[in-house]
Amino acid sequence: MTTVVVVRKGGQVAIAADTLVTFGDTRLSQRFEENEKLFKVDAMGGPSYIGMAGTVAHFPVLRKALNALPKDQLRLGSRDEVFDTFTRLHPLLKETFFLQTKEDDNDPYESSQFSVLIANASGIYGLYSYREVFEFKEFWGIGSGRSFALGAMHATYARAKTAREVAEAGLAASCEFDRNSAAPINIFTIKLKGSV
User: Fold this and answer.
1) What's the CA gap between 184 and 103, in Å, rounded?
2) Which of 43, 130, 131, 150 has its CA 20 to 30 A from that of 86?
3) How many angstroms separate the CA atoms of 93 and 62, rounded?
4) What is the pTM (predicted TM-score) of this model?
């Protein structure tokens, strides 16, 4: 698993992730492989940074699938745009990348099997397996270290000056206490639209 966080504060958004990959009890650290859990896509409206939690197989698949969409269909600037983009993406994930869509016999919809956080100049968003989309006002986290990250970000949000500070606090806590998260961390910041 992993820890990925997004933060919105002080006219800035930040997205951060640890760099550890685990296979059961085996840990693959940054020392042995360049483990990038965040990637950039050039969507309509400007760049977006995307981070994921889940199986390692999702990372190259989602990166390639998003980049395969025509740019006019890659829209991530609002809750509805994120939903529409990932709804268009779902058939591509099934047909081209052989996504298994079933999680449980009682699934209400086909699952996309991943949790995603998105940061861009319009805000911070979360997307879950049935394409449920959330637009967060302050911060959020996904992955095995999310509880530690959420606690640390909650404790520091009011006194921190920037989104980056809050994200760093969240990742520091998850890397300290979650056995499936480890430093170094990757972090990207973007200025929010309309901020001075």
Assistant:
1) 32
2) 150
3) 8
4) 0.92
